[in-house]
Amino acid sequence: MxxxxxxxxxxxxxxxxxxxxxxxxxxxxMKDGKETxxxxxxxxxxxxxxxxxxxxxxxxxxxRTRYIYDLYYKRKAISRELYDYLLKNKYADxxxxxxxxxxxxxxxxxxxxxxxxxxxxxxxxxxxxPKEKLTEGKKVECVHCGCRGCASGD
Length: 154
What we know:
Blueprint: H1 16-31, H2 37-42, H3 55-74, H4 80-88, H5 94-100
Helix pairs in contact: 1-3
């Protein structure tokens, strides 16, 4: 007879209560008004490009991940146990944090901007180009997430 799997929810580590209001605020932003996935799917795209409707979701995801990254790596305000708990429960993007720890990717906005398969010529996104390398007056805006420049040299 097969074993019956029971789901056990692990209790949040010590210190989670202190950052929970901020995480709930990010969740509320993601659900309220124009920044929900339902809005992204159902909103008419009058006067907008199709990709522009998903940009608020990318921004909130980036802010929440950066908040957790700063708490652990910059301010050292949370424990390793709490940090691992947050990554395991998808409060932050572990792959994005892994890139932020590497040289040259400290300001990376999203992982799609460094994937060459998502661009026409097999390079990175235009937001990864340092601003001084671009021609004067050219508006730089990422197609994927709306970033206006996340090169670490800026």
